[in-house]
Amino acid sequence: MRRLLRGVAYAVLPAELVLAVCLVAGIRLPVPVLVAAEAAMLVLLLAEAAVFLRLRRQGLTNREAVRELVPEPVLRLIGHEVRLLWSLVLWTARRRDGVGPGDRSFGHARDQAALFYGFAFVCLVETIGMSYLLGDWPFVHAIVLVLDVYTVLFVLGLHAASVTRPHLLSADTLRLRQAAHVDLRIPLDRIASVSYELLFTHTKNEEGVMNLAVGSQTSITLELSEPVTVVGLLGRERQVRTVRCHADDARALLGALTRARSAPSPTPEPTG
């Protein structure tokens, strides 16, 4: 049943999107087509709701039930887009995400700012130019305009996510982040060595290595005594023992990590 619903959703949702674009573009569609499309969407939503309630009655949580209905890659892509848009809100409000009491934050977006601003400006110019060129084709113009505006927001969202999600160092964990798709937690007791190493070239898909380059550079290299699990954007997992990252003030991050790793462990309280 769940596979059938997924198959129907893959057919109905794109069709609903096409109809929405047509309506925005001012294209008149036959009433039977609109009625059939909305009826199919309503039936799909009712069927999804019924299966969701049945899964809840079987003891699954809300999140587990949603994961049963929606493929994990789709959920991850939706979550990524939501985080990008939320990052724009945080960026505008000059707030940061996930910084808790006692955490030290280390920004890592400075060296990519010029690239992203330039890319956003080019996308904006392209949006204006395409609006002028496609003025006589409302349908095509509406589609291209939506895509162009979303592209500008996407580019700005990537930079905003990097600004509002800095690297974090707590008493026992180093949390390395990149935009809205990487959030890697490394226990400090797994860091065998840390060094300042400025690199501008990196081998792609190197076994056991993760490169979190910013502006094509990394400046901190971590060698781990035990591997940590890295989860990709679509849910793929792999083990890494070497992590390279970058920070605006890499030497400050290096010094903070060195002090945190050499700090004495808290004395356990006596029992009994």
Can you walk through the features of this model?
The chain has 3 domains: 2-70, no CATH class; 90-164, no CATH class; 178-262, no CATH class. It has 272 residues and is an alpha+beta fold. It has 7 helices and 8 strands; from the N terminus they run H-H-H-H-E-H-H-E-E-E-E-E-E-E-H. It has helices spanning 2-24, 31-57, 62-69, 72-92, 113-133, 138-164, 250-262; strands at residues 104-106, 167-169, 173-178, 182-187, 191-199, 209-211, 218-231, 237-245. The mean pLDDT is 84.
Question: What labels would you give this structure?
Answer:
four-stranded mixed β-sheet, 3 domains, 272 residues, four-stranded antiparallel β-sheet, 19% strand, 8 strands
Chart the SSEs and their pairings.
Layout lengths: L1 H23 L6 H27 L4 H8 L2 H21 L11 E3 L6 H21 L4 H27 L2 E3 L3 E6 L3 E6 L3 E9 L9 E3 L6 E14 L5 E9 L4 H13 L10
Helix pairs in contact: 1-2, 2-3, 4-6, 5-6
Spatial strand order of the main sheet: 1-2-3-4
Which percent range fits the helix content? 40-55%
- Kindly report how far apart the N and C termini lie: 56 Å
Total helical segments: 7
* Number of domain modules: 3
Radius of gyration: 24 Å
Assign an overall shape: globular
- SSE-based structural type: alpha+beta
Please report which band the strand proportion falls in: under 5%, 5-15%, 15-25%, 25-35%, 35-45% or over 45%: 15-25%
Mean pLDDT: 84
Query: How do the SSEs run, as a string of H and E?
Result: HHHHEHHEEEEEEEH
Number of strands: 8
Summarize the structure.
The protein has 272 residues and is an alpha+beta fold. The protein is built from seven helices and eight strands; from the N terminus they run H-H-H-H-E-H-H-E-E-E-E-E-E-E-H.
